[in-house]
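Q: Could you fold this chain for me?
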Amino acid sequence: MDAKKAIKYMLISTMAFACMNATVKHLSEVNSYQIVFFRSLSSLFFTFGFLIKNKIPIIGKKNKLLILRSITGATSMLLFFMSVKYLSVGTAVSLRYIAPIFAAIFAVFLLKERVRAWQWVFFIISFLGVLVLKGLDTELNSYGLMLVLMASVLSGLVYVIINKIGKSEHPVVIVNYFMLTATILGGVLSIGNWVTPKGTEWVFLFSLGVFGYYGQIFMTKAFQTASTNIVAPIKYVEVIFTTTLGMTLFNEIYTFWTILGIALIISGMVLNVWYKSKVKG
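A: Sure. Below is the predicted structure, expressed as structure tokens.
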């Protein structure tokens, strides 16, 4: 186990995802359907290439679950990208990270898993962060909040579906299904809403898939290099990177209540990861 290398991988991953989030924010004139389409299409170049190069069957074994995971994930992605147009990018990313709360609830009913008392305490801390953002941050857009919360619920469901799929499928097969479905979804929805990108917008659109792919790759490498309790908390550095980019590039203003809400959300999630690893250990 090489903790330093794993942390380095995870920091690269979080920066890649932060760049992707900032790029979505930058593409304010392009509709969210097209952003999903280009983000997914450009990632397919990498996933298809990997599967073909390594002679891994593109069609998986648990097709129904793979399709369900893909539709759920693609819808979650679309809703998140839509929310970024109404919320500061750091706030949107923070709210998306409450997905483990919904994953735990789904797991109780669908997987018959047990959620320990302390985990509920940490979830409540995170949810208090949402309440602070909604109740005390007067700048928060309610429609954007609704979109990102729906994205988080679906993202939580994705975690449970992946758990059901288990290790029977190669990770890249799962991602490839996801990207293919998202490309189709984004493409179909773009037909009646197409806005032709201008100038550098083409570069930014195709860069989404590059950032997303390398974010996934380095995150996977990090989890393969060191234990979850070391790596998982580093994932939340994405919020810091994204918030910094939001302030620097888009002059976003974060009030005291925004920062407090984000801090509560991230603290609850990090404590949950730490507690789960401690119990397993």
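A (continued): The CA atoms of residues 228 and 277 lie 7 Å apart.
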